[in-house]
Design a protein that fits this description.
Length: 115
């Protein structure tokens, strides 16, 4: 390859890596809890440890702790992880939600599964 082709390939790879990194950016749970209005109705990605969970037939809720705070995740159709599992979850921030007879303040309603 000539120098121009090498430069073009490097540029394309750089752009792809940047897109991937931006797409995988996680939000701190502490930031969501401090200002839930800023995130209301927006999809965000969080990552942390599942501390509690309950569910039946692929629906339920689980609490995630990332070291900056905790938030409940409502999972409808995605299943729930076991206690202690490391999870990455994308979902929409909502407030004042009732699920399975329990009331929650600010929650993340899961919209995407991560592997």
């Amino acid at each position: 390859m000539d120098r121009s082709t090498n430069h073009s390939v490097l540029l394309i790879w750089s752009v792809l890596v940047m897109i991937f990194l931006v797409g995988c950016e996680t939000t701190k749970i502490g930031d969501i809890n401090r200002d839930p209005g800023r995130y209301a109705g927006k999809d965000v990605t969080i990552s942390g440890q599942a501390t509690e969970s309950f569910g039946v037939l692929n629906e339920g809720a689980f609490e995630v702790d990332d070291g900056t705070g905790r938030i409940w995740v409502l999972s409808e159709g995605f299943g729930v992880p076991g206690k202690g599992a490391h999870v990455t979850v994308t979902g929409r921030v909502q407030s004042g939600v009732t699920f399975a007879g329990r009331s929650f303040g600010t929650v993340l309603r899961q919209t995407q599964r991560h592997h």
